[in-house]
Amino acid sequence: MAAYAALVSLARTTELLLNSDKYSIPVDEKAQITSIREYAMFLISSLEDFPERSSRLEGKIKDIANQTEVLIEYFMWKQIRLNWCSVQNLSRSEFDELLTKSREEIGLIVSQTMDGQFVGDSSATISPARLAPTNNNDVVIGLGADLITIKDRLCGASSKLQVIPITGMGGIGKTTLARNAYDDSSIVGYFHIRAWVTVSQHYSAHRILSTLLDSMTLFLKEQVLGEEIDETVMAEKVYKCLKGRRYLVVMDDVWSTEVLDDVRKLFPDDGNGSRIMLTTRLSNVGLYADSSGPLHQMRFMDNNQSWDLLKQKVFMSGQDCPSELEDIGKMIARCCGGLPLAVVLVGGILSAGKMTQASWKEVAQNIASIVDEQLEKLLSLCYKHLPQHLRPCFLLIGGFSEDYEIQVSRLIKLWVAEGFLKCGNRYKSFEDEAEEYLEDLVRRNLVLVAERKASGKIKRCKLHDLVRDLCVRKSNDVNEKYTTAFIKDFRYINHIDHYPKETWLPTFLAMLSQRVATSLQPDLVGNFRLLRILDVINDSDRLLPSQVFELFHLRYFALAYYVKIPPSISNLENLQTLIICPWRKYGRYPAHFSSLPLEIWSMPQLRHLVFSYSYILPDPKDCSTPPLENLQTLSGVSSLVCSRRVMKLLPNLKKLGIIYSRNEDYNVYNLIHLHQLEKLKITRCRDSSWLRKNPIFPLSLKKLTLYGGEFPWKDMAVVGALPNLEVLKLRFLVYDGDTWETTNGGFLQLKFLLIEESNLQYWITETNHFPRLKSLRLHYCWDLSRIPDGIGEIPTLELIEVDDVNKSLVDSAKQILEDQLEYYGNNALQVHCIRV
Predict the structure, then answer these.
(1) Considering only the top CATH level, what class is 391-474?
(2) Is the CATH number 3.40.50.2000 carried by domain 144-297?
(3) So what CATH class is 702-836?
(4) Class of 2-123 per CATH?
(5) Where are the alpha helices (DSSP H) in 505-593?
(6) Could you report the per-residue pLDDT of 763-795, keeping only the tens digit for each?
(7) Which of 212, 448, 669, 677 gives 698 a disulfide partner, CB atoms 3.0 to 4.6 angstroms apart?
(8) 738: nearest Cα among 707, 717, 761, 704
(9) How far is CA 746 from CA 442, 738, 741, 749, in A?
(10) DSSP secondary structure code for residue 114 in this structure
(11) Residue 546, SS3?
(12) How distant, in Å, are the alpha carbons of 365, 408, 414, 756 from that of 451?
């Protein structure tokens, strides 16, 4: 992993240097750097050709690649920031000498590789060529009886508040069972409120309260964004919200009775059948939670169930196991000891390997003794068979806290900033490639999907505790460790000890632990000359020291609080991502908007600008301003004037989010010139109007979210004509009027439709007007009399979700469900009613 990641990053850095006109490179030095790049590309190909082997030279490759990249980055920094000749600690001749030495060392490794010394153990020959299918509707194999039992207890006759403990060893399926019961349509409809809290070993009362409150947003009358709330106040809000309502709270992965003592006072017992379901590996915790009822003890799967689950994970739906693999497959399933996690992970290995007896026998030999060793060998085997390009990406996920649900958009930006992505061209961006990497890790069952977007892409992901433990161990194996208090929670640190003191800190710094709040102290920041990623949770002074803007190699800069961005931001010439979004605990929304400096337009490496609607992107006005060709995301900007000139400066923008707070003409019709735009969100606040005429949107749009506007419903024809639109969210009176009548030929690709806070009364439509619709959600549609019958007859429809503010709408949704079952036998359609 470390060798491959170091080589990919070195190749990208040398390419950036060789293709830039900012640096003065003598002919001899340019030839040296070109050779280094060619050697790096050769070694990358060698590692990719032998993904299953652990090379004896891997550690040496990592060290030399890292040292060489640090040397080249130091050269780039000196040329840009300082007069080279005035620097005494590393002369030009010394640089040439070190560069020559690095090229020779890498060249020697290439020679050894070509001579056959690039060898490793021969115990694994599984190819990654074939990937396991993604089953979005997995059958809960072996849990059918458990699920019936749990559902009966959840909806049982007892009106008293009951706790239902699910116990068993790690990986046996406790969380899977709880999640299937929690998401069951009959359970969803039975409880007024449902909330899921993952506790874990190192639990936080504040996090539990925050999670509960987040699950109750529909019921909270007072919501103050960005305001820190005292834990006592939070607990009171949770209690009041649950009071009088039938609720289901799941507490997943509970490790101590102390947690239960802390949360008991949150849950009122109103004699209405409320339930608390918890999962724990410790039987004494389950008994302590409720000694009056039985523990639900998870059982191991039998051999047949293990084999059925293994087949499900290895073969696509409807595909049979080849007869020559059946016997060895059943033996592999038996070796997993009835542990579902073991079966799932082995399935990931088999699905990514060759469908031959020899390949499957090798897997069987490697996993024979894993169960007794608590999956250690199995998990290591899973890692061992990861392709080289996936290993660094996988290990970085382990840097997030236990049970943390990772925002995929953030994870991908970190992968790109670390230099883990090799490609990136006009046909496939780094971000597109990263999404493929993540889906690959999911298919291998190493990464869990916490939530998918309406488009089907992964929105949030996480790691199973045992898999994360593997990540941490492997990270410790391949990275140096520091004991300094300030940096002890960083990941991917490489110590370079023979370069000048101000550059000794790492080129591969990742991020601060989510649990750490640190201050940007100038003296410390000044030592991080080669820092690539800086993710700051909190700073008591709310000021950025000037040393931050000397971090020439910084690629990812995220702040959880508001600051005024100075013109010196342009010194960060390699910056790809700038995020300024306050956390609820730390950030407060400012009283006025702040303009970004004009210098933001002189940062060609920018890929993502993400704000919380408090920054204005200035109009450069200078016709000679070059476009930001790499910028893909511009999210959360205020009052963007969409002049044609500005649109031309954003030619490859894919995601745009704007808020308008004043009643002006913002030329939004010019958005049609953003030919690559896929996601657009426009928000109107207060009494502003963001358009004065019929809206025009780019034909490339796949997702459109509109908040406010009060346009006539007939203007929806413009939206319906968008040929690629898959997700449409209409919030807070976007369209005004009592009748919406659709026509044939529109919304041809639409899969998800949300209408929220609308005065619509009559919706006239036909089945073929939404031919691909999967999910319809109607929230706070007070006046809508009924859902058109044609909606229920859409063959692709899977879900109708309504709230109980409009009884006639609820009745209409239920009638559609009954008709679909009675006349068409459609069991796929679900109707969810949210109680508010």
Answers:
(1) mainly alpha
(2) no
(3) alpha beta
(4) mainly alpha
(5) 522-527
(6) 999 999 999 999 999 999 999 989 998 998 898
(7) 677
(8) 761
(9) 35, 20, 12, 9
(10) I
(11) helix
(12) 36, 10, 19, 21
